[in-house]
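Batch 3, record 17
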Amino acid sequence: MADNFKLYSQYYDLLNQGKDYVGEANYVADLISTYSPGAKSILELGSGTGKHANLLAEKGYRVMGLERSPEMVAIAEQTANDRVKYKVTDITDFDLDQQFDVAISLFHVVSYLTTNQSLIQTFKNVDQHLRENGLFIFDVWHSSAVNHQIPEKRTRKFQNKEIEVVRKADPVVFPERNVVEVNFDITITNQADQHQDQIFENHPMRHFSAPEIEILAYATGFEVIHSEEFQSKAAPSVATWGVCYILRKKGQS
Ligand SMILES: C[S@@+](CC[C@H](N)C(=O)[O-])C[C@H]1O[C@@H](n2cnc3c(N)ncnc32)[C@H](O)[C@@H]1O
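Prediction for the assembled complex:
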């Protein structure tokens, strides 16, 4: 898995050029103001190329981004706002000796954690790095939508002045593990000389039901205070691919 994003990082922003990072950062900032007014510091898990981190820093938050891919962090550091710092680390195993008001993990990063052990370790780490009553906000693939819609093969094409990327996705469903392995076949064509590179990647993604997140939260020191469709705020349904969960760190009892 770690190597996937080494290659991916080279064209990640091109693949996601249509993604509404501004709208998403506004949405997350609204959630933070609603559920934790006064929050100033954010820990971001799986910060990628730093798009959300910069936009949140522009709103006044200090952000520490954790990211396993040094290539992604190198891209993020090229545009990093003064209020943003990055650390190359695995979110299943980190110790910063620092606490934050809010933790976020966006664009299905938690769905990349496919085993119970990696989920429990990550959630416990987040709990240790949050102040009392701190929030953990993340979006994940939603089981009822995955089971209802059944992921299909699809091809997407992207280009800029330098390269054209054609990405074919061929998902394999593992119903007993709540996992879908998305196999990508990616062809990158250099626009200048038409040279082609081909890359194959395998991204196992886990999907979750609300009771599963509730029991994970309970086991790791959190309670689920709200869930809704990411950005639209609709109630989760079979039509909702990405559900946003808002967890609060429980106080000492
Ligand atoms: C789909 S990208 C999302 C990046 C960013 N949050 C965004 O919205 O653009 C998933 C990111 O999670 C990172 N990631 C996946 N598993 C990780 C892990 N165990 N530890 C740290 N980073 C991880 C990947 O390297 C990748 O950058």
